[in-house]
Design brief:
By secondary structure, the protein is of the alpha+beta class. It is built from three helices and nine strands.
Length: about 160
């Protein structure tokens, strides 16, 4: 009888841990801001001279749960995630501009203090725009990094050229 009780408690604890983990991962998907989706439907049109880059799902810092893909560009004082951008869902994603390229957690951790945060990711697919500070020289900050603040995890990066 005591053995059955121990098994029951063990399975309840395991179930709670698995449920909590699944909730942390899926909650951002569930609460994705609908107003942000509506706002992002019309983004600034691009020009051929806009600096552009690609998030690469196969970058060294990416894995099955932390990845990004698609096109990102500077245009008319904004950072624009194009329609083809997709990010792995997760909590508390932030977008940074950096002078140095980083494609792993350790690389970005070293340069994060010099990077400029431009906004929070409120949806996991494009299009999406971020207003840039008026005094920002986009020729100095030519790298875009998506970072999970809550878990200090690298998600994606792109070099703008």
């Amino acid at each position: 009888m005591r053995k059955q009780f121990i098994y029951a408690v063990f399975f309840v604890v395991v179930g709670v841990v698995i449920g909590f983990g699944a909730g942390v991962y899926t909650l951002p998907i569930i609460i994705e801001y609908q107003s942000e989706r509506a706002e992002s439907a019309s983004v600034t049109p691009g020009m051929e001279t806009d600096p552009m880059g690609q998030f690469n799902r196969e970058s060294p810092g990416s894995d099955a749960l932390h990845w990004g893909e698609g096109t990102v560009r500077f245009s008319a004082g904004k950072l624009v995630f194009e329609q083809d951008v997709k990010l792995a869902p997760g909590p508390d994603y932030r977008v940074y501009l950096s002078r140095k390229f980083a494609e792993t957690k350790s690389e970005f951790s070293k340069i994060k203090s010099q990077a400029i945060e431009v906004g929070k990711v409120k949806t996991f697919s494009g299009p999406l725009e971020f207003e840039l500070p008026q005094d920002l020289n986009i020729h100095e900050y030519d790298n875009v990094i998506v970072w999970c603040e809550t878990f200090s995890m690298y998600i994606a990066s792109a070099r703008l050229e």
